[in-house]
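Posting this for the archive.
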Amino acid sequence: MKTILVPTDFSDASRNASRYAVNLAKSLNYRVLLFHVFNTPMLVGGEFPAMEMADLLGLEQDHKKRLEEEAELLRKGTDVVIGCQATSGFTVDEIADIEEKEKPALIVMGLSPSGRIGEFVFGSISTDVVKNTQTPVIIVPEASHFKEIKKIAFASDLKMECEMRIHEPLKDMIDAFGSQIAILNVVKEQSDRIGKDDGVSGRRIEKYFENMEHVYHFLENNDVIEGISEFIVNQHVDMVTMIPQKHNLIERIFKESNTKKMAFHVDIPLLTLPAIPCD
């Protein structure tokens, strides 16, 4: 049975993501693994009394008990298999470790509304996970609630430098919900558009979606995020999917990625699909 990994910090946003993951798992016949990372106190020698090992074990047990209570609430009214694990450490590192061990098909994470502290804490963890994983990730805004995924917008500049990997969760969603793929390219001018027959990139896109119902949309807008948001509203899109592009160091420092801005400002789930690394 395929697994959805759900990192949680017990915030409203992560609880909402957990509920979303359970509903999705029911539709796809997946299992769910709740995962919580907690911090142990950092003690400076000589300044504080040493913490007894029993206290550390008690702290771990408290976090595991709280996580099990979360899992028990999610199990009510569903037959989805829900497991849970808790560990101490640095969140992004521990998520990477459990991803390596469990090999989940999908990671689901929550995100608080723009302007709240959660955006910069758990939100930044979500986008850090996206940048460092080869597993598809669904980022679920706190205002987003589960519904059948009938229309998926694949937002891209259609300039594919590498081959695209077909990810099973996307195929499973299409099979479960009969989803249609809207391939969206936001351009400043129609002359900038790249179609399915335009060079290597177009052929890669077509090969990826050849067995899925899909249609191309070209939208003129000077602001990519504004254009995608407009399309989502007008076309009643249920999920946006993107392949996060690798930016060089200067771009990472001075410019937010479109994936991050999408995650923070669109109130429907965002599915990120890792690309095959270029040689």
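Residues 115-122, 247-255 have pLDDT under 50 and may be disordered. The radius of gyration is 20 Å.
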